[in-house]
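Fold Annotation — chain and its backbone

Encoding — discrete vocabulary of local shapes
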Amino acid sequence: MKLLRILSSLLRKSSNEDEMRRYIFKPILLPVISYFEASNLLALISDRREGIHTIKINAGLCNIEVSVESEYVRLPGNYIVNKSQLERMLRYKNSAFLIKNDVFKIEIRSKYKYYKLMVPRENCPPTLEISGIHMHRIVDTDPWRDSMSKVKLARIRSGMNVLDVCTGLGYTAIHSRLRGANYVLTIEKDPYVLEIAKANPWSRRLADPQIDIILDDATQVIPELESESFHAIIHDPPRFSLAGELYSFEFYQELYRVLKKGGILFHYTGTPGSKYRRMSFMKGVAQRLRKAGFTVVYAKKALGILGIK
């Protein structure tokens, strides 16, 4: 079934379809070098290790062969990075850079926020950092495995339709497809987030034709979806202080409505504040989910709550 037909079948009112901003995801297929990979390349030049070497690029995603030639490194596709460019990259710890005619730090500075593709450590999938706050767990795990654990908890499997609230870098949408989901509808409100994702090599599978991205407010989109149209939901919102509406009883009612009977919601809550405040916060989330109709199970290791319909 074509994507347009799948999305149309999920809408309660076909007249509202054009109001939903479908986002066409086109990844930037340029080499990406992280801070750590730049350090390794600079070491090859500084040690005068001329010749062919196998290295990792794209934040550890793939191995490539490079040619080290005096003061520069030649990458496949005839992309060249010189010593001074690598030295400049090392001024920005944990950053990542697109390589074309020059090196470009993967960041966006808007009027109110600063967005950066942040690589926590060597050979680690990146996270998105917004004004100094990273959007994935990076302690004792990495952003890719963190997202995979959320998808596993939602018991996503072959043939399912999945609703993914707050796309981010798209890792939960991608893992849903990797686990066999037939279709994923993912919603993101912030266009700058998707622009950063386009430059992230680990997000390229968001171009999967069975993933639909809607650039809009989830509180406006979900009420237009058919009841009981998803087998599972991943809800990974920003912190409460930034998006309190995504933690409301009214929003949870809508999530309950669009979930099929027996379906599972995984709701990431994170670790806001002190232990006492965190327990109080999760208790409040759980109470609102129960009031909306869910059976609630705490998933403490994953810093979230399961809601079962």
The mean pLDDT is 91.
